[in-house]
Input
Amino acid sequence: MDNQQFAKFLEERLYPDLYAAIHQRDQMTEKLIDYNELRFIILHIKEQDLSKITTKINIGCEFYVKAKADIDLISVETGIPGLYIELKPDEALEYIDKREVIIKEKLERYSDAAIQIQQHIDAFSQALRVLGNNNPQEVEIREDLNS
Output
C-alpha cells in the first residue's frame, strides 16, 4: 500500500466511521439526559403529590403557550422515532430504568467503537509518516479527532 492508498482509506473509510460513531455516541448521551430529566420531573410530581401541572409547551418556532396537563398518564418515547406509549408515573419510572440500561449499553458500544477507530487512524497516520520518510511525497494527515 502506498501513501495515497493509506490517505484514501483514512479519508473515505476511517474518518467517516469515526464521525458516525461519535455522532451515535452523542445521540445516546442526549437520550440519557432526556430520560434523567423525565425521571426528575416524575419524582418531583410524586413528591408534591400533584394531580395536574401548569407548564409551557413549545408549539413550534420557539413559540410557547401555557398549558395544564393531567399527569395520570405520561407519554414516553419508546426508542422508535415518533412512537410513544402512555404510562402511569410508576410504570414510566420502571420503563425509564429499563431503557437506560439499554441506552448505556449502546453508549458504551459506540464509545468503544470510536476509541478503536481512533486507534486505527493513529496507526494509519504513523504508517503514513514512516512511508513518508522513504517517499518524499507529502500527505496531509488530520490530527486527533477525539472530542
In short: The chain is about 65% helix and 15% strand.
